[in-house]
Design a protein that fits this description.
This protein is α/β, with parallel strands linked by helices. Helix content is about 30%, strand content about 20%. The strands form four sheets. An eight-stranded parallel β-sheet has the order 3-16-15-10-9-8-7-4, with helices on one face. Strands 5-6-14-11 form a four-stranded antiparallel β-sheet, with no helix packed on it.
Length: about 325
């Protein structure tokens, strides 16, 4: 039975990995494997890294909503220097591909981060062009195809150590146009989707539950939206897609693969069941045995021949 997948040259033992921002830097659990066996993961995706250390947004930062989670962390992180000196030496000892999520407020910041990470020889980069929880950068780059394509060009010109993935969200944009532009400018893959903008209001206090007002919505409530976007973009680009959005068990993960994703990231469910990735791997193997599937690639994109009606639901 073969669960291996190839993400633009990045070889994964299986398609399953944590989503950025839900698994810290990946170093915190290396020596604590009672609940989570990190060595079974297909890859690790780090928190978003910026040039300088960021404190993130003030509390409250997280709120539960029906079938989902609102977050407004604000990209708190230790900065590139501490990441390379403190986190990367531990991560590179693992026999697991590491994808470093990066964020910048200006083009020059992405360029600097790409140079530093290339010098450190990290395995891959994921460009966060879609975070809704910061006032500068993030989503503003991912909402304009020229800006998104420009960032891809800059990073690809500086980062040669591995593939570059672009993380996008469908917040007020035609995500297909943005995805195609990123591919045109050299992106090696896409991570779809980041959180969707949302909010919650405390009616007793007449205040926003998250002080910043807007936050990123994740969890099972966005899974059908994310699945549809992966399916649509899969038919428009040739580069591999990492499916993200509301995965809560092996079936919801396999849906992404069948829709065309070559790998999956699990996020919010890690807060509910920390060992969920290990469970999804195990349950996927059992599914493959039950359906006599020898290679996971047999089901990737298997829905491509189906036609769907979009004009008039």
């Amino acid at each position: 039975m073969n669960l291996e997948v190839n993400l633009a040259g990045l070889k994964l033992k299986n398609p399953f990995m944590p989503a950025s921002g839900t698994f810290a830097y990946g170093t915190e659990l290396i020596y604590h494997t009672e609940a989570i066996n990190i060595k079974e993961f297909g890859a690790i995706v780090t928190k978003g890294i910026s040039i300088k250390e960021r404190a993130g947004n003030p509390p409250e930062r997280i709120a539960e909503v029906p079938c989902g989670l609102l977050n407004s962390i604000g990209l708190e992180n230790v900065g590139i220097e501490r990441f390379i000196n403190e986190k990367w030496p531990l991560l590179k000892k693992l026999d697991i591909p590491v994808i470093v999520n990066v964020f910048g407020e200006k083009e020059e910041e992405f360029e600097f981060l790409a140079e530093e990470l290339d010098r450190a020889c990290v395995h891959a980069i994921e460009l966060n062009l879609s975070c809704p929880n910061v006032d500068k950068g993030g989503m503003e780059f991912g909402q304009n195809k020229k800006s998104a394509g420009r960032i891809v060009e800059i990073v690809k010109n500086k980062f040669k150590a591995g593939p570059v993935f672009v993380k996008l969200a469908p917040n007020f944009v035609n995500i297909i146009d943005i995805a195609k532009e990123c591919e045109k400018k050299g992106a090696d893959g896409l991570s779809l989707i980041n959180t969707i903008m949302g909010m919650a209001i405390d009616v007793e206090r007449r205040e926003f539950v998250i002080p910043r007002g807007v936050a990123g919505l994740s969890g099972p409530c966005i899974h059908p939206i994310a699945l549809y976007i992966v399916y649509r973009v899969y038919h428009e680009v040739k580069i591999p897609i990492i499916g993200i959005g509301g995965i809560y068990d092996y079936k919801s993960a396999l849906e992404f693969l069948m829709a065309g994703a070559r790998a999956c990231q699990i996020g919010s469910m890690l807060f509910v069941e920390p060992g969920i990735i290990n469970k999804i791997i195990k349950d996927t193997e059992e599914y493959m045995r039950r359906h006599k599937i020898n290679d996971i690639k047999e089901i990737i994109g298997c829905m491509q021949i189906r036609k769907i009606r979009e004009e008039k639901p």
